[in-house]
What does this fold into?
Amino acid sequence: MFSCARHATTLNTTTTKPWRRRREKRLDGIKSRSKRGDLELLPGDPSFLLHVSCEMGLGIRADFMKEMSKHIAETLSKPETYVCVCVHDDVSMTWGGKEEPCALGTLKSIGGINLENNKKVMEKLCEILERDFMIPKNRVYVEFVDMERENCGYDGATFGG
It folds into this structure.
């Protein structure tokens, strides 16, 4: 057994681990892109979280998530490899005191959140929810959040530094 202090003196602090160099190089690239104002290319966003009161079923839920992932990527001009979609179905919810089908969601992104894009996402979401799950569009709320870089974490750091 050794103490932390004794162990620390035996470490070679001048050698950087290969994984740390790769991570630092990648984060430097992210920082340089974001300084150019190219926020749409940052990884780790956007994220879409949706709670629905009905049960979707595994296969249908997976299809829904894939369809929304593709649509969000196209609408916000982001690579789909960075889009994260999370759906919680069969959630106990009331809307106006009634337990009828409804949905509540949040779309967060660094850049790309604006009136035009928000409308496109809402139209597509409501179309799918009404078509496949009988959730009327007047029972769907989505909060759109344009995140600041320092308020978004990815890979052990934030995009703000």
Notes: The helical segments are 4-10, 18-35, 58-76, 115-133. Residues 1-23, 25-43 have pLDDT under 50 and may be disordered.
